[in-house]
């Protein structure tokens, strides 16, 4: 299936991206992609679990809003097409390595403190780990600076949770688009 | 590497289709010159400006990565533009004039340098641009405004944020005035008025906020200018002391050679020096037009510090405009404080959306989990914010330079080095204390300060009368290469503490008309 460039751009702007479901390609929002079990392109199972768990710890509701599918799809884009906040932070692309090492370091830190990957720890343990990450205070942290990791993952989670038409609805504030996205994310 | 495809020579070749490049393109094409404009990014149209903070990221730099370094790195990824319209496509339309003192920092205070022109010389160009573009504001209320024609439109409407914040400024005996904005408050020359949805950062598709897609690019095209997007300039060609054209790559990495009688670099305060430095040759070992070695030095930005508050009353922070509803320049006198030389202004009540770098959630980056959920519910209706924008004097160590390693087009990679000096940091600290006092006086239930950030890029190829102390002359013409002109904010010898776009347009009108009036002198072989 092919899409005209401008239609694709507009659909992408509204949150819809190309996802593969049961071998066929569809334009879906990240939330829809998650609900339909769309295939991931880059992220591995452990990375997806860690990202969703970190998203929920930072911004409740972000995992079900499709955080992992959003990040996965945007990491698959070219630098110029990507919608990730990391684009603003003058971190050299490609960003796949940044995310992979960040998620691996998070799981490793959880393992060292609590004996399991991040998605297995309790909410109290997750909170303590996040607080330590915010202060760059995790011994043997083996990824990008942990406070930077938190900032980036939190921004992604805020995007899918609050930066959409559905997110505005949830806050009970009007979206007021000039050019309204075709989809409500 | 295959041979470059050669194109028919034109009168003027412009690199960069942002505010300055598009303006020059219209000016020259309407004067009958054959014009080609090359831009590295995509060919945006108004219909591409979707209302979304997430979408707006595609309007930012998407070319070869630029490294931003130093103690206070410049936020290139957020500030730069990408594609037709450049950074002006996502700029906020905040258009104050520079103060008279901004042009005379050396002669008035013994610091930095003077501009080679003063406010009086630029004033008629401010007035003409203002009438042409249409500005909304209230000149009489701006007690700090230098002489100039009144604004052609009344101020923009104001919302709850502005009301509560103005209360704080007034309680401290400070003045506020509607911020002058290049946004229509009424119908103006066929352009619609603002609907106050607060999506300026994503670009204004109805053209209420002036950007290059509104007029300069379409009118330049109608006059025959050829805009080529996805055209990434690799180097400026020169022969016997004159620029002869450029080599550029298209999006398939095919090389092209475009010759011209005149070359205008309008590729930003970062990429103008980068292109010159990457155009080094046996004749120009330090870079084209860089015989004195000053290209890239004196890069400047503005310090930016946000102060935020939560109020009992509803403030509608999502409404209004991204720039500011009100301004205050009571702190603009550069030497009025015991510590910290330099000006600052307050941008009062910019619209805030829930997400993005300037959004509500980022203002409390320390919150997460349920604490963040509660905060978002409250702040999305009760928040208000003010931004202190401070001066950054030119220093040679703040500069655009090149790494030794190369990109896919065999150019040396671009590096920005920037740190604020003690004066800039002291001004920022003063403003931070003042801003917190404003929030307290306004009755905020809770208030806090955000981190130090940067806004705008200026300098690096400054104007001046002395070829040993500047890169271009008082009209933006290279001291070294007579048919090479530079345009944009890179020409600013000093940066003041106000948004630079109005001055960019006024300067481009002045310099462009001088170019046309002396065309034969510029292009004479």
Please render the helix and strand layout as text.
The complex is a heterodimer of chains A (185) and B (525).
Chain A (H helix, E strand, L loop, with lengths): L4 H9 L3 E5 L2 E5 L1 H7 L8 H14 L8 H9 L20 H19 L8 H12 L11 H17 L2 H7 L14
Chain B lengths: L4 E11 L3 H12 L4 E4 L28 E3 L6 H4 L25 H5 L9 H15 L26 H12 L5 E2 L37 H7 L3 E3 L3 E8 L2 E8 L5 E11 L2 H10 L22 E11 L15 E3 L15 E5 L11 H4 L6 H13 E8 L8 E8 L5 E6 L4 H21 L3 E13 L25 E3 L14 H17 L1 H5 L2
Parallel strand pairs in B: 1-2, 1-8, 2-5, 3-14, 8-16
Antiparallel strand pairs in B: 4-10, 6-7, 7-8, 9-12, 9-15, 10-11, 11-12, 13-14
Q: Poorly predicted ranges of chain B (pLDDT <50, ≥5 residues)?
A: none
Order of helices and strands of chain A: HEEHHHHHHH
- Largest binding interface between chains: A-B, 51 and 54 residues
Whole-number mean pLDDT of chain B: 97
CATH class of chain B: Alpha Beta
Give the amount of beta strand of chain B, in percent. 15-25%
**What's the helical proportion of residues of chain A?**
40-55%
Q: Report Rg of chain B.
A: 22 Å
Largest sheet of chain B: 7 strands, mixed
Overview of the structural elements:
Chain A has about 180 residues and is mainly alpha-helical. In chain A, about 50% of the residues lie in helices and about 5% in strands. Chain A is built from 8 helices and 2 strands. In chain A, strands 1-2 form a two-stranded antiparallel ribbon. Chain B has a single domain, classed as FAD/NAD(P)-binding domain (3-Layer(bba) Sandwich). In chain B, strands 1, 2, 5, 6, 7, 8 and 16 form a 7-stranded mixed β-sheet that branches. A 6-stranded antiparallel β-sheet of chain B has the order 4-10-11-12-9-15. In chain B, strands 3-14-13 form a 3-stranded mixed β-sheet, covered by helices on one side. Chain B is globular. Classes of the chains: A mainly alpha (about 180), B alpha/beta (about 525). Chains A and B meet through helix 1, helix 6, helix 7 and helix 8 of A and helix 2 and helix 9 of B. Chain A: Pfam families: Gluconate_2-dh3. Chain A: It comes from Iodidimonas muriae. Chain A: Keywords: Signal. Chain A: InterPro entries: Gluconate_2DH_su3, TAT_signal.
């Amino acid at each position: 299936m092919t899409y005209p460039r401008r239609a694709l751009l507009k659909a992408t702007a509204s949150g819809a991206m190309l996802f593969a479901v049961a071998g066929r390609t569809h334009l879906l929002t990240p939330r829809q992609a998650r609900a339909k079990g769309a295939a991931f392109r880059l992220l591995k199972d452990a990375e997806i679990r860690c990202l969703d768990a970190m998203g929920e710890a930072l911004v409740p509701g972000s995992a079900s809003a499709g955080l992992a599918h959003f990040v996965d799809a945007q990491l698959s884009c070219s630098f110029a097409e990507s919608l990730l906040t990391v684009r603003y932070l003058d971190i050299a692309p490609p960003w796949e390595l940044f995310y992979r090492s960040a998620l691996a370091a998070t799981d490793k830190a959880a393992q060292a403190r609590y004996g399991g990957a991040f998605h297995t720890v309790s909410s109290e343990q997750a909170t303590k780990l996040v607080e330590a990450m915010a202060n760059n205070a995790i011994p043997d942290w083996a990824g990008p600076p942990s406070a930077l990791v938190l900032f980036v993952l939190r921004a992604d989670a805020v995007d899918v949770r609050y930066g959409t038409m559905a997110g505005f609805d949830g806050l009970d504030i009007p979206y007021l688009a000039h050019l309204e996205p075709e989809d409500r994310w | 590497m295959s041979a470059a495809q050669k194109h028919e020579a034109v009168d003027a070749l412009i690199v960069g289709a942002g505010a300055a490049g598009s303006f020059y393109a219209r000016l020259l094409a309407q004067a009958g010159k054959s014009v080609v404009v090359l831009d590295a990014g995509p060919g945006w149209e108004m219909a591409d400006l979707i209302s979304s903070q997430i979408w707006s990221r595609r309007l930012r730099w998407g070319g070869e990565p630029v490294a931003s370094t130093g103690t206070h790195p410049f936020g290139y990824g957020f500030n730069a533009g990408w594609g037709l319209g450049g950074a002006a496509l996502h700029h906020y339309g905040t258009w104050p004039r520079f103060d008279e003192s901004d042009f005379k920092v050396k002669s008035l205070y013994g610091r930095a340098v003077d501009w080679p022109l003063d406010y009086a010389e630029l004033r008629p160009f401010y007035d003409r641009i203002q009438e042409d573009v249409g500005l909304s504001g209230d000149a009489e209320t701006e007690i700090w405004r230098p002489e100039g024609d009144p604004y052609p439109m009344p101020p923009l409407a104001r919302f709850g944020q502005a009301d509560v914040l103005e209360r704080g400024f007034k309680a401290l005996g400070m003045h506020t005035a509607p911020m002058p904005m290049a946004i229509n408050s009424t119908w103006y020359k066929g352009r619609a008025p603002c609907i106050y949805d607060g999506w300026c950062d994503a670009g204004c598709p109805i053209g209420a906020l002036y950007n290059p897609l509104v007029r300069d690019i379409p009118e330049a095209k109608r006059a025959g200018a050829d805009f080529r997007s996805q055209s990434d300039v690799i180097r400026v060609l020169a022969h016997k002391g004159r620029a002869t054209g450029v080599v550029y790559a298209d999006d398939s990495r095919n090389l092209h050679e475009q010759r011209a009688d005149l070359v205008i670099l309008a590729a930003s305060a970062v990429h103008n020096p980068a292109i010159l430095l990457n155009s080094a040759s046996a004749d120009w070992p330090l870079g084209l037009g860089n015989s004195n070695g000053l290209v890239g030095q004196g890069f400047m930005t503005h310090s930016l510090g946000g102060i935020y508050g939560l109020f009992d009353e509803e403030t509608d922070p999502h409404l209004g405009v991204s720039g500011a509803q009100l301004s205050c320049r009571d702190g603009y006198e550069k030497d009025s404080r015991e510590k910290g030389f330099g000006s600052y202004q307050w941008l009062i009540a910019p619209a805030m959306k829930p997400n993005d770098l300037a959004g509500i959630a980022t203002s409390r980056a320390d919150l997460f989990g349920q604490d963040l959920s509660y905060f978002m519910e409250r702040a999305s209706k009760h928040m208000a914010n003010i931004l202190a924008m401070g001066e950054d004097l030119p220093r040679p160590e703040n500069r655009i330079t090149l790494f030794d390693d190369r990109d896919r087009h065999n150019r040396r990679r671009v590096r920005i080095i920037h740190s604020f000096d003690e004066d800039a940091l002291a001004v920022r600290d003063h403003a931070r204390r003042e801003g917190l006092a404003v929030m307290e006086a306004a009755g905020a239930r809770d208030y806090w300060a955000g981190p130090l950030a940067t806004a705008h890029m200026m300098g690096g190829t400054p104007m001046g009368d002395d070829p040993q102390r500047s890169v271009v002359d008082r009209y933006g013409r290279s001291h070294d290469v007579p048919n090479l002109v530079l345009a944009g904010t890179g020409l600013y010898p000093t940066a003041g503490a106000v948004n630079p776009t109005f001055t960019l347009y006024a300067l481009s009108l002045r310099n462009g008309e001088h170019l046309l009036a002396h065309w034969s002198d510029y292009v004479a072989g």
